[in-house]
Amino acid sequence: MNILLVAATEAEISPFLLHHGYQNLSIREKQIGIHQVSILISGVGMVATAFAMGNYCAEKVFDLAINTGIAGSFDAAIQPGNLCRVSEDILAEFGAEDGTDFLIAETIGLGKSLFSAATVSGFPGYDQLKKVKAVTVNKVHGNEKSIAEFVERFNPQIETMEGAAFFYACEKLGIPGIQIRAISNVVERRNRANWQIEPAIKNLNDILIQLFNE
């Protein structure tokens, strides 16, 4: 397969890049086993991700796109260091307020806000990852009141800043897309002392290397 691997930052997939010899991203495409794998560092956030995907894929054809990186967890059962695959993702801030109610984009005709991962074969370890529901946000949560409101409104398990925008771009480009995330922190009042970014990145890259080895 011709595969596009998308991450917001190079740091999130640096061990994978080093393992496979993508040196300083001067080489963006390499053969890994039976797959041709291209790397796209999109930048952080929905706008950067959607633009980078559209720009990079305008004249390229891919059989599969994989979005990967770290994420925050709303779910006490999903702790820092854990790995998961996103089955459903929503542009959680795309809609309108009506007093204390929030109207998602679909209900008021603004467009689509809910996206699902593609069904893929050829990566046995992917199906074994915990399946989760995600929200994609412009603002990482760090306020108890807004966290409680988001949990009540969407019942999400994790949050990222790119996932749903990645799925949106895949849909528009006609590319099957999947998303693999490693948890770096619990969604709570901002507390960097509790973040576990390095273990999350290690576990994420271990599974990426394993998936392509398989």
Description of the molecule:
There is one protein chain. With 214 residues, the chain is α/β, with parallel strands linked by helices. It has a single domain (2-213), classed as Rossmann fold (3-Layer(aba) Sandwich). Helix content is 29%, strand content 31%. It has six helices and eleven strands. It has helices at 14-20, 46-56, 124-127, 144-154, 163-173, 197-213; strands at 2-7, 29-32, 35-41, 64-73, 83-91, 95-98, 101-104, 114-116, 130-136, 158-160, 177-186. The strands form two sheets. It has a five-stranded mixed barrel with strand order 4-10-9-5-11. A two-stranded antiparallel ribbon has the order 6-7. A hairpin with a 2-residue loop joins β2 and β3 (35-41). The radius of gyration is 17 Å and the shape is globular. The relative contact order is 0.23. The mean pLDDT is 90.
Oligomer state equals single chain
Radius of gyration, taken over Cα atoms and rounded to an integer in Å: 17 Å
Determine and state the CATH class.
Answer: Alpha Beta
The arrangement of helices and strands along the chain is EHEEHEEEEEHEHEHEH
Number of helices: 6
Gross morphology is globular
By CATH, the superfamily comes out as: Nucleoside phosphorylase domain
Strand order of the largest sheet: 4-10-9-5-11
Q: Give the termini separation.
A: 14 Å
- Structural domain tally: 1
Main β-sheet: number of strands, strand sense, barrel status?
5 strands, mixed, barrel
In terms of structural class, how would the helical and strand content be classed? alpha/beta
Mean pLDDT, all residues: 90
Note poorly predicted spans.
none
What's the total number of strands?
A: 11
Tell me the fraction of residues in β-strands, as a range: 25-35%
CATH topology name, in short, is Rossmann fold
Helix content: 25-40%
Quickly give the CATH architecture.
3-Layer(aba) Sandwich
